[in-house]
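User: Study the fold:
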Amino acid sequence: MNRDNERLSSPFAAPRTTLGPGDLLALVIGIVVGAGIFRTPSLVAGAAESASAMLAVWAAGGVLSIIGALCYAELASTYPNMGGDYHFLGRAFGRRLAFFYAWARLAVIQTGSIALLAYIVGDYLAGIASVGPASPTLYAALAVIAVTALNWAGVRFGAGAQRWLTGVEILGLVLVIAAGLSLSTAEAQPLSPPAGGGIGLMLVFVLLT
């Protein structure tokens, strides 16, 4: 274990500074406020027994997110290292578990998140310009290819695209909020959530946002 910690604590060459504060801000906003915010609120509302229950679940999700962020802030300030989760897990449980986590993140966790967000984009684009039954899948694949190409073009180019996409996302949220406050619609009938699983299901959607 001591040998593992020594390897994990060994100094690395400092990365070249390429991104500025604005780039990092856009990156953090893009990570925290993902495309799921345009999809999951309706799913949470559909599984809620009342408006107060829905708001309470969102508040609980916010508290859990803040606790997680504070934990990461404490870990990053105590063990500063570019390895992130891999480094923290390696110090706590050894390199073997950290190795398995890194591969799980590459093969399952991150790819699953990318697929989820891509299908959300695909669903919306299919509603705007459908090209057949496979429209959501086609648009999702094109979205992944486009974002991959943007990042392949270089760090600066990808950072510029991130700033632009973050601005579009914030503008979309503002427009949705403005439409919700200004447009009057008929009240929707609340859906009956599954017995005993409503809160857990809502929390899953909230934490995926």
